[in-house]
């Protein structure tokens, strides 16, 4: 059993965090940064190189300071990367941008029905299959030039390990790309010819490779890389792993995600932003959500100080 601390990069849309957790489950270090989104022509994209530099520096720091020799990634939904070989073939899109109206009408007409994917028809890139279709409309050769379509946590697992894999909790996060009841990729993936670009599935947390570090003292240090996960689904897994079975989970961040395993999927109303997420062990779970963290940021004027329990009770 490994008794060393683990580094977890929690990659949000607004904030990206590093948490170092001891073998006893105690938070012993953390760091934060804000990912940079910038305009590239008429698209808004991620400055992934700057974020990767920060992640590498912080991982080296906590490896030197705490002996960290494992790293894991969790990430917000709706984001993907197109890669070929060792390179991105297109910058990573900001999911908060809407395709032109004529293109949107075309792509929304070909997305699978709710009864197949349990993904409601959402605007912007909240269904990341929608943004894949947008890129395909912009350049029909683009996706064909990629050898892998990587979900966002798996992009970072790949950056650190060199191995391209898929993971079901992220694929099943209202993407239009997964059919939960079939436990398979959706009809859209097969119809568009994308199946060959979906890497093999690997369980969240499984070992996918290693990452070599050079520490401050010049010593070489190898870090085991674990496959990433959809952030809210990892929170659900944690409470299920403790033996809880009859509960509602409210997972907060930019999005407030509310899971309830007891709700039948046929009770979901897609027009009210209800959907099914997919747990790390492939089972679908009824979900509702709203952008509570963003609403709080706007309402509070960016307030970041600690809030007392008395203020909450008041």
How would you characterize the overall build of this protein?
This protein has 314 residues and is an alpha+beta fold. The chain has one domain: ATPase, nucleotide binding domain (Nucleotidyltransferase, domain 5). Helices cover 29% and strands 28% of the residues. The protein has helices spanning 48-66, 101-108, 114-117, 128-138, 142-145, 152-161, 168-171, 187-191, 231-241, 292-300, 309-313; strands at 6-11, 16-21, 27-33, 37-40, 43-46, 70-75, 80-84, 87-90, 148-151, 178-179, 184-185, 207-214, 220-226, 229-230, 248-251, 256-260, 274-278, 284-290. Strands 1, 2, 3, 6, 12, 13 and 14 form a 7-stranded mixed beta sheet that branches. A 4-stranded antiparallel beta sheet has the order 15-16-18-17. A hairpin with a 2-residue loop joins β4 and β5 (43-46).
SSE topology sketch:
Layout: E1 6-11, E2 16-21, E3 27-33, E4 37-40, E5 43-46, H1 48-66, E6 70-75, E7 80-84, E8 87-90, H2 101-108, H3 114-117, H4 128-138, H5 142-145, E9 148-151, H6 152-161, H7 168-171, E10 178-179, E11 184-185, H8 187-191, E12 207-214, E13 220-226, E14 229-230, H9 231-241, E15 248-251, E16 256-260, E17 274-278, E18 284-290, H10 292-300, H11 309-313
Parallel strand pairs: 1-6, 6-13, 6-14
Antiparallel strand pairs: 1-2, 2-3, 4-5, 7-8, 7-9, 10-11, 12-13, 15-16, 16-18, 17-18
Helix pairs in contact: 2-4
């Amino acid at each position: 059993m490994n008794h060393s601390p683990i580094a977890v990069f929690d990659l949000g849309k607004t904030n990206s965090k590093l948490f170092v957790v001891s073998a006893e489950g105690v938070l012993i270090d953390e760091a934060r940064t804000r990912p940079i989104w910038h305009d590239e022509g008429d698209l808004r994209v991620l400055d992934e190189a700057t974020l990767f530099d920060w992640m590498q520096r912080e991982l080296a720091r906590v490896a030197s300071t705490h002996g960290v020799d494992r790293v894991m990634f969790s990430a917000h939904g709706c984001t993907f990367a197109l890669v070929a070989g060792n390179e991105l073939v297109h910058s990573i899109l900001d999911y908060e941008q809407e395709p032109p109206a004529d293109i949107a009408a075309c792509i929304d007409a070909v997305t699978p029905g709710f009864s197949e994917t349990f993904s409601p028809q959402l605007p912007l890139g909240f269904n990341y299959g929608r943004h894949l279709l947008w890129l395909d409309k912009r350049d029909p050769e683009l996706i064909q030039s990629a050898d892998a379509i990587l979900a966002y946590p798996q992009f970072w697992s790949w950056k650190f390990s060199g191995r391209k894999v898929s993971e079901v909790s992220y694929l099943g996060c209202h993407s239009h790309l997964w059919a939960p009841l079939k436990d398979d990729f959706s009809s859209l993936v097969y119809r568009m010819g994308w199946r060959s670009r979906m890497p093999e599935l690997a369980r969240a947390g499984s070992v996918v490779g290693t990452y070599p570090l050079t520490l401050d003292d010049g010593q070489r240090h190898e870090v085991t890389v674990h496959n990433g996960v959809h952030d809210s689904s990892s929170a659900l897994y944690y409470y299920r792993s403790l033996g809880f079975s009859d509960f509602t989970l409210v997972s907060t961040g930019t999005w407030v995600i509310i899971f309830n395993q007891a709700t039948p999927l046929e009770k979901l109303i897609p027009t009210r932003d209800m959907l099914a997420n997919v747990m790390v062990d492939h089972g679908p779970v009824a979900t509702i959500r709203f952008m509570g963290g963003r609403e709080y940021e706007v309402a509070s004027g960016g307030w970041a100080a600690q809030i007392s329990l008395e203020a909450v009770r008041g």
